[in-house]
TrEMBL record:
It comes from the Bacteria. Keywords: Glycosyltransferase, Ligase, Phosphoprotein, Pyridine nucleotide biosynthesis, Transferase. Residues 385-441 form the Nicotinate phosphoribosyltransferase C-terminal domain. It catalyses: 5-phospho-alpha-D-ribose 1-diphosphate + nicotinate + ATP + H2O = nicotinate beta-D-ribonucleotide + ADP + phosphate + diphosphate. The lineage of its organism: Bacteria, Pseudomonadati, Pseudomonadota, Gammaproteobacteria, Pseudomonadales. PANTHER family: NICOTINATE PHOSPHORIBOSYLTRANSFERASE. Catalyzes the first step in the biosynthesis of NAD from nicotinic acid, the ATP-dependent synthesis of beta-nicotinate D-ribonucleotide from nicotinate and 5-phospho-D-ribose 1-phosphate. This is Nicotinate phosphoribosyltransferase. Residues 158-335 form the Nicotinate/nicotinamide phosphoribosyltransferase domain. NCBIfam families: NAPRTase_put, PRK09243.1-3, PRK12484.1. Belongs to the NAPRTase family.
């Protein structure tokens, strides 16, 4: 092992698993440079997900275009004593030269449907596995959670509040992007705003109130400090008493040209408090002031509050969003499907895969709602709209990246095609995904090539 640490910020090519490098050395020494096809897909959906939402493609393409080992990384690898000099020299010139086919970001997808396919010389396609999974898994995970919130919130303001409990800095930043892609209105994470142009939202913390000798003074000081965006947190002490203080303060602020835009609730029975506060504000002449709620909010709570008619205009969703608390991981994989022109297939119990380069065709009913998919081989027209398209060739994007606003608009249109049974928080009718005969036949051929001709075709 190395005797000195290597600090790399931002993450470099060493952000991978050790076995990627040990396998690469084996491929290198045996001249295994034929073309390989790997696909990223989810094996199954948990009961609390009716669909997944593809996200993270832009980060994945950025990674592939910039793939290279720095001199510092190469020297660190030399110091490990595990890798031979010719192999280190090979790594120095390694770049991604392959092709990528993918579903567009914001596309709903289902079990066994690949959302990204890499076709490249075996060492290149193998090396990128860990980071591609890392990028695609996390953003698809959060976008899928966020989409559920968007669908049940029925147009209410939604803000990502999850940075402080996200699993690391990159996760916090990317969660804000994924949530916005899925339809959230903005984020509280400043770096997400700076890096991706996501609108920023923020109010105040309880500590601001507590730092003042009186709640009234805290409200007044905050309003004069930020006169264009006065949203006051009113549950530090007594929620309804604070609401009356807001009403009393409003005329004094109005004399200075400052309008109270809203109040925020962050604890207790949000529905009950919202009803009482709404009446206090309305009776006090603040009928246009909004009520924004946060504090352990998720799609289940929002769905209930919406159904009950709680007078809440928007929600800050934090921990449950940025950790995808009810389904904190996709059961996903990046698997070899073809090598040197031959179909390849994993046959492990419970983890069998479909071989070959695949395409997904989606069918729509007369109302424009998706009604079924067919998983088949590339070149086999199964009818419907093909979802997997070329996005990279010879290691370069085929066209400029869409803006995040364009991706967001596309996502909104895609979510609108989901059947009603998939839009709620409860388990809906399973979406039909058929496997085409051509793919079943290739699976049998792949089994025959490795002496498993008598095995069943289906994973």
């Amino acid at each position: 092992m190395a005797t000195h640490p290597l600090r790399i910020d931002p993450p470099g090519t060493l952000l991978t698993d050790l076995y990627q490098l040990t396998m690469l050395q084996g491929y290198f020494e045996r001249g295994m440079f034929d073309m390989a096809v790997f696909e990223f897909f989810a094996r199954k959906l948990p009961p609390c997900r009716n669909f997944y939402l593809a996200a993270g493609l832009e980060m994945a393409l950025d990674f592939l275009e910039g793939l290279r080992f720095s001199q510092a990384e190469l020297e660190w690898l030399r110091g490990q004593g595990q890798f031979k000099a010719p192999f280190i020299d090979y790594l120095a010139g390694l770049r991604f030269t392959g092709e990528v086919h993918a579903m567009a970001e914001g596309t709903p997808f289902f079990a066994d449907e690949p959302i990204l396919r890499v076709t490249a010389p075996l060492p290149e396609a193998q090396l990128v596995e860990s980071r591609l999974i890392n990028l695609l898994h996390f953003q698809s995970l959060i976008a899928s959670k966020a989409a559920r919130v968007v669908l049940v919130a029925a147009g209410r303001l939604l803000v990502d509040f999850g940075l402080r409990r996200s699993h690391g800095a990159e996760a916090g930043v990317y969660a804000g992007r994924a949530a916005y892609l899925a339809g959230f209105d903005g984020t509280a994470t400043v770096l997400t705003g700076a890096q991706f142009g996501v609108p920023l939202y923020g109010t105040m913390a309880h500590s601001f109130i507590q730092a003042h000798d009186s709640e009234d003074k805290a409200f007044e000081h905050f309003a004069h400090s930020l006169p264009g965006s006065v949203v006051l947190l009113i549950d530090t002490y007594d929620t309804e008493v604070a609401a009356h203080k807001v009403v009393a303060l409003a005329p004094r602020l109005a004399a200075s040209g400052i309008r109270i835009r809203g109040v925020r609730l962050d604890s207790g029975d949000l529905g009950a408090h919202a009803r009482k506060v709404r009446k206090i504000l309305d009776d006090g002449g603040l009928g246009d002031a909004t009520i924004f709620a946060s504090g352990n909010v998720d799609e289940y709570l929002i769905a209930r509050l919406v159904e009950e008619g709680a007078p809440i205009d928007g929600y800050g969703v934090g921990t449950h969003l940025d950790t995808s608390a009810d389904a904190p991981a996709l059961d996903c994989a990046y698997k070899l499907q073809e090598y040197a022109g031959k179909p390849r297939r994993k046959h492990s119990e419970g983890k069998a895969t479909w071989p070959g380069r695949k395409q997904v065709f989606r069918r729509f009913d007369a109302q424009g709602l998706c009604c079924g998919d067919t998983l088949t081989l590339e070149g086999d027209n199964a009818g419907g709209t093909p979802l997997i398209m070329p996005v990279m060739r010879q290691g370069k994007r085929l066209q400029p990246s869409p803006t995040l606003e364009e991706v967001r608009a596309r996502t909104r249109a895609q979510l609108a095609t989901l059947p009603v049974t998939l839009r709620g928080v409860l388990a809906g009718t399973a979406y039909p995904v058929q496997v085409a005969p051509a793919l079943e036949a290739l699976a049998r051929e792949a089994d025959r090539l490795v002496g498993l001709g008598s095995q069943e075709a289906a994973p």
